[in-house]
Design a protein that fits this description.
2 domains; Alpha/beta knot; seven-stranded parallel sheet; 12 strands; 27% strand; 234 residues; single chain; Ribosomal Protein L25, Chain P; 29% helix; 6 helices; elongated; alpha/beta
Length: 234
Amino acid sequence: MDYFYCPPEKISDNDLIIEGEEFSHLAHVMRKKEGDEIIVVDGRGSAYEVVLEMVTRRLARGVIRRVFRRYHEPSANVTLAAVILKNPSKFDFLVEKLTEIGVMEIIPLRTERTIPSHAKNDRWQKLALSAMKQCGRSYLPAVRELTPLDSLIGDGGTAGRKFIAHERLDEGVSLGELRSAPGESTLVLVGPEGGFSDEEFSRCLRSGFKPVFLGDRRLRTETAAIVLASLLLY
């Protein structure tokens, strides 16, 4: 069945309302009509098997038949912070792929060697929404505002595990140790292609981040982020 998104405030115990852009997609693009069965996700980890009861010019109402919790979601929570990239389309790609892999939160990161100074959060959040529906997830990853590294270091205390990718250090956490246990929360940092500065790296280590070495080949930021997310969740 086709997937659609409905915010939690539009969902009751028995039915739900689809409005706005999502309704336009449902009615005008997908041509759904009364009696059709669809899957609706709330972006908070729940999915609903729904039969459309009413489709008007402005909204659709559906009757909830079944509810699924943590629908198609990984058992662990991974937050990935990656430096924003000079080429905007590459970060677009990264947001889509991290959403598909199962990351719970995406943090655009600013470091000493970051070139762009502005983030496109609205666009990235829309891309995450589209990717969530496309891949069949039920949780919508939040894309944070552009965050300085120092702020994130000070705010990273809630994560159970904290890692930082480093291209020159062949000691640290082995790749086999990265896989997350059920219920475990992890924060991982990925820097620019030139790497974190020595001072930034030292500050992260002092704040409890453990280094991860991904091999002798120099990976692009988006490649390293996708590899790390996959190792953590699969």
